[in-house]
Amino acid sequence: MLSRQTLRSVSAARHFSSSASRQTKVAVLGAGGGIGQPTSLLLKQNKLVTSLSLYDIRGAPGVAADVSHVDTASEVKGYAADQLDQALDGAEVIVIPAGVPRKPGMTRDDLFNTNASIVRDLATAIGRVAPKAHILVISNPVNSTVPIVASVLENLKVFDPRRLFGVTTLDVVRASRFLAGIAGTDPADTPVTVVGGHSGVTIVPLLSQSAVGKAVNGEAWEKLVYRIQYGGDEVVKAKDGAGSATLSMAYAAAKFTNQLLRALGGEKGVVAPTFVKSPLFETQGVDFFSTNVELGVNGVEKIHPLGPLSAEEEKLIEACLPELKKNIAKGQSFVSSS
Ligand SMILES: NC(=O)c1ccc[n+]([C@@H]2O[C@H](COP(=O)([O-])OP(=O)(O)OC[C@H]3O[C@@H](n4cnc5c(N)ncnc54)[C@H](O)[C@@H]3O)[C@@H](O)[C@H]2O)c1
């Protein structure tokens, strides 16, 4: 049995730790889905998350009951279809994997018709209930859904470009894993910066900027770039109609969320590629672009330039920009016409 003295010090330590640490409520919208479920599980394991709010039009209370039994300190609550406002209330970070995934033969743009309105409606609720939240968009096509969220928040007069992120981390994770596979290195020591957008030719890996990547040339380079740009198709094909990447995507979502939470908590020097409102190609009509971004207590702290490019990478950027411009404009005009 614990002595009174011990109990007193345990309770004092508890009081100290809860008052000293930040309270961070993270909401997952689409928590019942293929990405949402493992993302919720991984976020439950993150000590920087103190409260987890799980929302979906179906199944979120069940996922929440399940995840809530994991023995970490955070509180988990699930919300049914008609409880979106409650789910968003007080959320500091909102992760959005809601929407339909691809089937074999589909491009991410083929998802536009369904996912555009899902994301628009979720963004409208966020603008009303949690206008200061950091929003992490996973729902495809990211090149269009991020501009949709921005336009909705702009119309509501609450848009802050420092707090909106398209999650492109899976491209970064794949680039590092695929390059390490060729070079025989540990992916942890084989980082690759991936810029542009999140689909096909808009995904531009800057292999020349990494010591390991620089050594890959000619046909091997072409094959590697293609694999990074179209790696998602490998999963769609292998799942044979059952969806797209969910587990590696959840890993990537949890990784980027953790980077953002560390920066929001005051850690300096957290840098990650992410698709944000960016001045880099604004003069060419490309308002959103992914490059390395330094994250800080307010979200986007500093957008890094592309850095030195090889001649081949310059060509990749040239191919990326017109497609990206089209995708962004499609998202923006969806909101202005709806
Ligand atoms: N950014 C990336 O790198 C990346 C990678 C893979 C997949 N994705 C995208 O993520 C999205 C989700 O993929 P998935 O495999 O989890 O799909 P899924 O169908 O398994 O899950 C989607 C979930 O969203 C829910 N949902 C639908 N409408 C909703 C709404 N209005 N509010 C809340 N929830 C809603 C569904 O009920 C479902 O549970 C797809 O658009 C997919 O293309 C993005």
UniProtKB/TrEMBL annotation:
Binding annotation for NAD(+): G30, A31, G32, G33, G34, I35, G36, D56, N115, I138, S139, N140, M249
Domain Lactate/malate dehydrogenase C-terminal: 168-334
Domain Lactate/malate dehydrogenase N-terminal: residue ranges: 24-166
Gene Ontology biological process terms, A to Z: malate metabolic process; tricarboxylic acid cycle
Active site: H198 (proton acceptor)
List of residues binding substrate: R102, R108, N140, R174
Keywords for this protein: NAD, Oxidoreductase, Tricarboxylic acid cycle
Superkingdom to which the source organism belongs: Eukaryota
Any one annotated GO CC term: mitochondrion
Molecular function as annotated in GO: L-malate dehydrogenase (NAD+) activity
Statement: the UniProt record of this protein carries the keyword Metal-binding: no
Pfam families to which the protein is assigned, alphabetical: Ldh_1_C, Ldh_1_N
Annotated signal peptide: none
Catalytic activity: (S)-malate + NAD(+) = oxaloacetate + NADH + H(+)
This enzyme's EC code(s): 1.1.1.37
Quaternary organization: Homodimer.
UniProt similarity note: Belongs to the LDH/MDH superfamily. MDH type 1 family.
Protein name in the entry: Malate dehydrogenase
Originating organism: Sistotremastrum niveocremeum HHB9708
